[in-house]
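Could you help me review a protein record that somebody else here produced? What it holds is a sequence and that sequence's fold in token form. I have pasted the whole thing underneath without changing anything:
=====
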Amino acid sequence: MIKRLLIPFALSALVSACSTSHDQDASALQAPNAQQAQDMVKTQRNQGQLQTLVEQYTKQFLRYEPLLSTAIGVPESLAGAGYNKRFTDFSAMGMRKLQDDMNTAAMAVAKVDNNGFSQDEKRHQQIVTDILRYYAGFSEFHGGYIDTWAGHLPYIINQLSGPLIDVPKVMQVQQPVSNVEEAQDYIARLQHFDFLVAGVLEKYKTDKLNGVQLPTKLYPKTLAYFENFLASPVPEHALLTSFTKKLEQTFLSQDEQTALIKQAQEALTNVVYPAYQTVKDTLLATQAHAPQGDGIWAQPNGDAMYLHEVRYLGDSSITPDDIHQLGLDEVARISTEMDTILRAQGYDEGSVGERMVLLAEQPEFLYQDSDEGRAQLLTDLNGQIAEIMAKTDMYYGALPTQKVEVKRIPEVTEAGEAGGYYSQPSLDGERPGIFWINLRDMSAVPSFSLKTLTYHEAVPGHHFQIALNMAQQDIGLLRQNAPFNAYVEGWALYSELVAKEMGMYEEDPFGDLGRLQAELYRAVRLVVDTGLHRKKWTREQAIEYFHETTGTGMTDVIAEVERYMALPGQALGYKLGMLQFVELRRMAERELGSEFDLKRFHDLLLLPGARPMSVVRSDVKRWIASNGAG
């Protein structure tokens, strides 16, 4: 019986029909085994090919992106010697070469024959291919640049992001300065800002020739950034003061520190400031020719570019019109929940938005607009992190070992920034993750909104997801820093809902209102983003709808709407990703019943790292099937 099981049916019938010798029978038995061995060798060769390609293209990408290498702290063997003193080439030729190479890389990885691969290996191949496609961008849109976080963005100079804003941030916060060599790398970067700026300006001008230019209504805030950057006296500039503080933590003598500070100051005076002044002058000279339309539709091939952003940043195949309607439906649902709580607390007159505006004006929810008030707010946020961390082991399996800190967004950039964001820790865990909060307008951060922002940006939101992602040493650097927007932001929004399950809003109806207002905020984003970029809403229409619907402070609303103008599609990922996480959990709970384990489910979502939501769905379905069979 055993021998017969090893022989294909047709072959066994042939053997029994003939008077074969023992040697012939043994030969027949060996044939399938030889084929299996041949297949195994082929599979191993293909596995080796995939590994080699992934390693090759990881190195290639990191050498294109030395700032990312600095931010996460990779070995020079991966990113190239001296990467801490280099910049990405943002010129038109530099960006085109990056996009072409990433497209070639994506096709090469996708073509590897995965017959015989395990499910994990097939998933690895698919995720890496999608990451490389992220960085290949959209070849039919002749403008913008490749961002390591969001892929292809349309405007290389804007009020919110881009090399000229992101580079100083990385240098101030994430570039190491612990010895003389690292200090000299920092200074070398300052000395080569003219190269960085020249590439960005060349790309800006080339894009303009192609008809792609920042919308006219975004110029005031963009110019304000450069004005603020240049307004600070050089000795007080954050690029110098942060460098000085880092030097103070080293073992260098005072004379050595003074000499290094002098070199950095000279570079700022002679290179950085003149380069940024050139950018400001260029913006002023070209502002009059900017397009009047506020959405990406006003740019050449902008409609197709928006569909690209919906696909990659929204991780969705549904149409912008359907996303718009989904947003309207979610706005109605969440507003009804908020109305119930507001009425229970005695707020029963006016729309939900009007009542939330009134609530945010109450003195008991406001911090003082002073240094002391801002310090108290930061202290309270750290307390909220400690409070929820005490409960996480009941809801989450794996927990990050890296710490998270809360810091204020620097004043030089706060005018154009969002209400908060997270920056990742270093790969070695020595530098913590940071939850940055915008304190430009203390009336825009009422205390009832802060718990939810903390759970989103820090614990168990971005910090859990990103820190755990970076800790997975066996998935490779591309996946450790994967940029899948709907997964990353969807997880953080889903985390706000889990925080409610954890009891973080018990006996705190106003805090729960803050949570619902934040969810409403994300539903409104579906309406406003598609409104701007699909339905040709104006900036003013979007601001009015956002403010009236959510009751969010006008300062934040204006910054948010202008953010969506600069980053088409990015705001879609939050709600679209969260809805999928909720749906998958409900499916697992329904299918598994008493066998459902929330901690294991969260590990299933987090430990393979950021990935397309279609891959997450496949993972959950296999997990359900496996647990159901058990």
Remarks:
- The mean pLDDT is 93.
- The beta strands are 145-147, 151-153, 404-408, 420-423, 433-437.
- The first strand starts at residue 145 and ends at 147.
